[in-house]
Amino acid sequence: MDKHTPCATQFKHNKFGIYVPVCCSFKPKQNEKIWQELDWESKTKGDKIRTIIAYKDEQVQKEIVDILKKNNDVEIIAVAKNAEDTYKQISELKPEMVFTGYTFEDNISGLEIIRKSKETLKDEVPVFNLITNDISKENFFEAKKILGEKLNTIIKANTEERYSGIIEDYKNYMNLHVEI
After folding, report:
1. What is this structure's pTM?
2. Which fold has domain 49-176?
3. Could you state, in order of their start, the residue ranges of all structural domains in the chain?
4. Among 128, 151, 163, which residue's Cα sits nearest to residue 54?
């Protein structure tokens, strides 16, 4: 082991050697009750930001994926090209962040995805970044009312600088709000 876990303590330069186990360890992402109650995986620093990309146009979706893959702080856990699949991925995978288009071919808006995600995940709803040029002021305020701070931004231009800035801002925000 080379980092702290809930079941092992790291002691360097002591008479017991490099590590002194204090109890049994469980592997991450397991179903043991202690692991689930401690929720250790969500509290570890330095992990990648688990992200879903959802956009109806495959070429634009690929551009976004390519931009985010360059960022070592992002782990793309799923991509989706319709609203139903986007909601399903969000509810099953529980990402930390979602980059999603606002309109999909199945005529479901990003606002509906936000509404359903919030109903299902409550406080665990991910941070949303909406990719759109056509959100009305009313819908923007409705999304903000539903998500609060979890509605991060509206993206109108898919540039590497824009996405890198979003990731950097998120990391800085999370570092300020980490429980110790």
Report:
1. 0.72
2. Rossmann fold (3.40.50)
3. 8-42, 49-176
4. 128
